[in-house]
């Protein structure tokens, strides 16, 4: 993610230029073009919440609506965004700068069933490699963004 302050965003999508003004802009695209100009904070909040959730296809996130996960932050005003309360899954977890639950539960992620494909076996992961390096998709735990990296593969039976 790329964070830009005090900007108006101009992004080219499908050959069409559009403009979203705002004081704080979060963009997953580092190639987005920006020009400095103050704008409407409601556009900024939408860009940082619902638009981001829709961009990454995170269903039931990014808005306050029936059926959406209640993860939200309560501010005292829209000028300096002082945080009063933080809710996670509908429960208050922080208030006035203090964490309320000191023993957060570990993140449990169910991999099986998250993608609809056949059962995979170790031999399914064998790949032919030319040379001594290959491209790898690197994940960062807890993040949605991946990176490309070049690695030297482990060679077995080859």
Automatic annotation (TrEMBL):
One of its GO terms (molecular function) is hydrolase activity, acting on carbon-nitrogen (but not peptide) bonds. InterPro entries: Amidohydro-rel (IPR006680), Metal-dep_hydrolase_composite (IPR011059). Coiled coil: none annotated. Residues 45-93 form the Amidohydrolase-related domain. Pfam families: Amidohydro_1. This is Amidohydrolase-related domain-containing protein. It comes from marine sediment metagenome.
